[in-house]
Structures are given as structure tokens and as C-alpha cells.
Amino acid sequence: xxxxxxxxxxxxxxxxxxxxxxxxxxxxxxxxxxxxxxxxxxxxxxxxxxxxxxxxxxxxxxxxxxxxxxxxxxxxxxxxxxxxxxxxxxxxxxxxxxxxxxxxxxxxxxxxxxxxxxxxxxxxxxxxxxxxxxxxxxxxxxxxxxxxxxxxxxxxxxxxxxxxxxxxxxxxxxxxxxxxxxxxxxxxxxxxxxxxxxxxxxxxxxxxxxxxxxxxxxxxxxxxxxxxxxxxxxxxxxxxxxxxxxxxxxxxxxxxxxxxxxxxxxxxxxxxxxxxxxxxxxxxxxxxxxxxxxxxxxxxxxxxxxxxxxxxxxxxxxxxxxxxxxxxxxxxxxxxxxxxxxxxxxxxxxxxxxxxxxxxxxxxxxxxxxxxx
Length: 373
Hints:
Blueprint: E1 2-5, H1 20-28, E2 32-36, H2 47-52, E3 56-58, H3 61-67, E4 70-72, E5 90-93, H4 101-110, E6 113-116, H5 130-147, E7 169-173, H6 177-188, E8 192-197, H7 200-209, E9 214-218, H8 221-227, E10 233-236, E11 262-265, E12 286-289, E13 292-295, H9 305-334, H10 336-341, E14 342-345, E15 348-349, H11 352-358, H12 365-371
Parallel strand pairs: 1-2, 1-4, 2-3, 4-5, 5-6, 7-8, 7-10, 8-9, 10-11, 11-13
Antiparallel strand pairs: 6-14, 12-13, 14-15
């Protein structure tokens, strides 16, 4: 199979979907790997490293899209890339379709086979989402601490305070991977941390493994609103696999927060769990609503590509090898994880949570494969 890796064109997205080691693995599996010139430079990877691994360096992204049966990316295809995608082509990347109806409809219209990193599941885990959730969770506290500085529009609060002066009050909405890593980072900086969740077993686990400056509360709208007046930093860390994030903080709730307090909504790539959230970019990461600073960068890990690229590709490579070996339909037949990653097949939507987000029709991937026999 011809496998292509194109340079990411999302604003300040420095990750790349395949390392030279990954290219080497795919080449040794008998595939041809084409890499767009300069695709790895943002992650410190030269074209020479890819060519030494057996990949073919191609100057033009359009040529890669046209020649390759499978395309590997990091972020969802942007509108300028949609015309390059064709029927029967496999695209393996983060899609986050439930946050973007136009993208969903465009991918269905192409007739391509879209396999999404974020919905690939093994049991109750999401192994291709986990590494970036770890990075984003940790980065959310770095970003939040920066935004809390007065010259950035924040309250002027130091996360850990100093002797005789109170610590920052951090609320984390969601106790999953993002929330746990955010809480660990905030606690390590000395903040007082409250984690909201609805899973009692998860909260018991968090109470046992996190330090004493972290506590859990059962998440209800009332409980969140009670904490907002004293919150310095709120981290949105809610995930419903494949689905749009629920809105836990409404526009009117911002009136409860102090001017200069900060919201970092990590769930923005799934539509955000704060009603006033809208996607931003690394070159213009914040905006202010009702005096509250919002940081809503949809590709936070792209700012630390020397960590993120390796963390991501370590997780995706085994599934990329399997998908390339089997092809889209046999992958659905033979691999339960890859079946769960299939979001569109042959012009039909195959992901139920995405269909529910937009009230669209959907067909289970296995039914489409059976009908094709």
C-alpha cells in the first residue's frame, strides 16, 4: 500500500503523524511511504532522516493525496484539504467530527474511509487519545497559570501562593485522563484543587492517589455554581467518546466568577464543555467574555511537538501497520479496535455519537462491510 504523510496546515500545528522510525517499520512491512517535504521539521525531524528510513520525500502535498491509498495526519482535514480526499481512500487522524457538522458532511461526501484516533477503543480505554490527553491536561495548567498573570488579563494570582498568602483555587471539570493530569500539575504547583466527576469509583481512586491539596466533589450544576465565585482557574476536561461535550458552565454562570479569573477548555475539540467556548489558535489563544479570560486552543499539544509527536506515534503506529496491512474493510472485519475507529465508510456515517450530535442517519461499520461482500 502507498501511505502518505502530509504536513499539518492548522495554525502553529508542529506535530507530524509519523516519525522516521514509523516510516522504517511501514517500509519493512512492504509499504511505500511518501512524506511531504518539511513535514517533520516542526518536531525536529529532517527530510534526510525520513529518506534514510526508506521514505520518499515529495515536494507537493497534492501529489501525495493523489497517489496514496492511505493518508496519515494528526489533525482533522481543513477545508482546503477536502477536495484532495477521494472515494475509497483511507484517512487516519484525529477527526472530532461531533464538533463540526461541515467536516462530517464533507467526509461523508468524499466517500473516503475515515478512521478517527479519538474513537479507537480497547475495552474502556482510548489508547490513541490518551497520550494527547496526558499532554493537554498538563499543558492546561501551564496555560492557565500564564493567563492568571496580570499582564495577560488575569487576576494576578500565583498558583501556589507564598507563606501567609492563599493559594490559587483550581476547579477541574472531569476526572478522566485530562482532569487527572491537570490536577497533578496544579497540585504540584501548590494550588488547592477540586475535581468534579459523577463516577464514584473514579473519585475514590482519585482521592487515594492524588495529594492532600486535591479533593473530589460530585458534579451537579448546583455544586459547580457554588464553587465558581472563589475559582481562580477552571479546567474543562469532560469527555464523552466520539460525542459533543456537555455544557457544564452556561453563559449566565460567568456572572458568578471574578473579573480576571481564567477558563481553559481542553474539551474544545469536541465542542467544549463551557458554553462560551470557541476554538482559538496558538497565535491568538485567548478571548474575554464577561471579564473571564478564556483559553480554548484546539490543538494544545502542537505547542510541544518534541514530546507530543513521539507520544502520539508510539500509540498510533501499531494500528497504522494493521490498517495498512488489512485495508479498511478487512480492518473492520478483523479488528475490534479499528472497527471502533471507523467514523465514515464508503460515503456513510458509522459513528453513533456523531450521528446523535447532528441528528443524522448512521450505519454500523460491520453492516457496510457485510453488504459489500
